Amino acid sequence: KPEPLWLFADQLGRHIHSAPEHADRDIILIESTAALRRRGGHRQKAHLLLSGMRHLAAELGERAQLWQAEGYRDALVELGRPVVVHEPTSRAAHDFVHALVEEGLVAEVLPNPSFALSRDDFETWAGTASSFRMETFYREQRRRFDILMDGDRPAGGTWNYDHENRESPPKSETLGVDPPWWPTEDEIDEQVRADLDALEIEWSGADGPRLFAVTTDEANEALRTFIDQRLATFGRYEDAIMGADWTMSHSLLSVPLNLSLLDPLDVVHAAEDAARNGDVDLAAAEGFIRQIIGWREFIWHLYWHFGADYMTKNSLDAHVPLPDWFRDLDADAVTARCLSDALEGVRDRGWVHHIPRLMILGSHALQRNYDPAELTEWFRAHFVDGYEWVMPVNVIGMSQHADGGLMATKPYTSGGAYINKMSDHCRSCEYNPKKRVGDDACPFTAGYWAFTHRHREMLSANHRTARAVSTMNRLSDLDAVLEQEAHREVF
Ligand code: FAD
Q: What Pfam families does its record include (predicted)?
């Protein structure tokens, strides 16, 4: 019999364990208590990982062995024969696996199976470039995998329909689209919950019903529901936030994608088919496909390409430690509706959609000069879809501009006016997005000008942000804003 295949908790999909090269292999899954303790973080994320591994073990029956051990090495030593693995998704796990090769516990490291583009092909594409733009990468991905292409032209004649995807939320309370697919918990989830209780680890966040797919069948159902019932409205309100509708038209597929339950090319083919069949507009399908073979793959490859040093980048010299209320997800300590709602989502579900991550949580941290490495770890720990590979480029790069612009042309932050336009939070907020000074001055509005002032040299040298500095220079109350924000403790 060939060596068994040891699958990590984020490699659970059928396209991996049922690949022809593994047909005769037994499957090894290992739950390491030491790893759970070391990573800590959101209770619901630990639940998803254990539930995913246990469901796969149950599905594979005698073919699978599920080990519960203190450490991974302990289990492999006890197993008594070398295993093969697919390359893991973090630098630390990569180093660990290669140490196990030296020790004879791992016989072979196969390529990572969870992304469409291989790491070698990315490096060939990247060549000697030092900074990268997603749009260039995305077009290359479309051509390479022949997605939404008519010959060598993009379907519909346009690569990117992003300009159609920036609508303010409607006046209604919710978007009114069909709900996403929700899982039904079973006895495996019940056991996971009891086992997590027994571990006595101090998790963050609230426990709650499982909200995401953890098996290939569940992930396929979630994908089908999204494509059939929600993709049509995906693009249009992608940048909007609605207080009473946390899912809006988002796919909620990041968890099953990051557990590798879905092959990313199957996901984009499903969206492309819906557009080609006339079930959804091209703009909606294109917007979604861009997230999957564009953004997701771009972030993955740059994690490796930028190297370990990237985590230490801090080009805006931000050193403020995360305040306790932020670190502890204490949404009740926050007055600003948008920030309180985002923190509440992280606490209660370990998930908020892209815009609260970028334009509320990330923007707040950027304005307040929070330490980018500490913030990266915060996102990794508290988000149910947070893994080492996905954090640095999203947080250090896109959200905090701490890499000096290696992957984004400008810092992402805004005043309350943008939040007021793109969300329904300001209506019920004690702060006034138009006010810069005073008890009801919006911390995002005032914080935006304080940020602009702090980085005025860098911002005025960039044609995309220079106007913010000239506007700031015309503010008659700038000194009062800066004085107020220097002492703000309540948000
Ligand atoms: P949708 O809006 O439906 O998008 C579809 C899919 O596109 C997502 O499921 C995801 O797989 C992919 N995608 C889109 N943008 C990105 C991106 N920038 N990076 C990676 N994948 C992307 N995504 C994570 O998977 N894990 C994280 O921990 C994470 N942290 C983030 C932190 C910050 C500060 C920011 C700005 C973004 C982060 N993202 C992260 C990206 C994005 O916000 C989430 O993938 C998305 O909100 C997940 O919800 P969804 O599945 O409904 O996504």
A: DPRP
Residue nearest to atom 31 of ligand 1 (CA): 394
pLDDT value of position 357: 98
Count CB atoms within 10 A of the CB of residue 318: 20
Cα–Cα–Cα angle for 235, 239, 242, nearest 5°? 105
Q: How many CB atoms lie within 10 A of CB 315?
A: 15
Of all protein residues, the one whose alpha carbon is nearest to atom 5 of ligand 1 is 291
Residue 165 has pLDDT above 80, yes or no: no
ipTM of the modeled complex: 0.99
Q: Answer yes or no: is pLDDT of 422 > 80.
A: yes
Return the CATH number at 29.
3.40.50.620
Same domain, 364 and 431: yes
105-113 mean pLDDT: 97
Sequence-ordered list of residues with C-beta below 8 angstroms from that of 417, at least 6 positions apart, any chain:
433, 434, 445
Average pLDDT, the chain: 96
- Is residue 183 in a domain? no
Q: Do 338 and 382 fall within a single domain?
A: yes
pLDDT per position as a tens digit, 182-196:
999 999 999 999 999
Distance 352 CA to ligand 1 centre (A): 10
- In-domain check, residue 358: yes
On whether both 389 and 248 belong to a single domain, the answer is no
pTM beyond 0.90, yes or no: yes
Q: What is the CATH number of the domain that holds 395?
A: 1.10.579.10
* pLDDT cut 70: percent of the chain above it: 100
Query: pLDDT by residue (tens digit) across 248-274?
Result: 999 999 999 999 999 999 999 999 999
Looking at 285, 306, 327, the residue that finishes a domain is: 306
Could you tell me if 160 and 274 lie in one domain? Answer: yes
Ligand 1 centroid, distance to 150 Cα (angstroms): 28
Distance 391 CA to ligand 1 centre (A): 10
Q: How far is the CA of 455 from the centre of ligand 1 (A)?
A: 28
Can you read off the two tokens belonging to residue 255?
Answer: 């968890």
Give the contacts of 399 (CB within 8 A, at least 6 positions apart): 357, 358, 362, 363, 365, 366, 375, 412
Same domain, 409 and 456: yes
Q: Are 203 and 381 in contact (CB under 8 A)?
A: no
Distance CA(166)–CA(311), nearest Å, equals 31
User: Would residue 218 count as lying in a domain?
Assistant: no
Print the domain residue range for 457.
Answer: 312-486
Please list every protein residue whose CB sits less than 6 Å from any atom of ligand 1.
250-254, 257-258, 291-292, 295-296, 299, 353-354, 357-358, 362, 379, 383, 385-386, 390, 394-395, 398-399
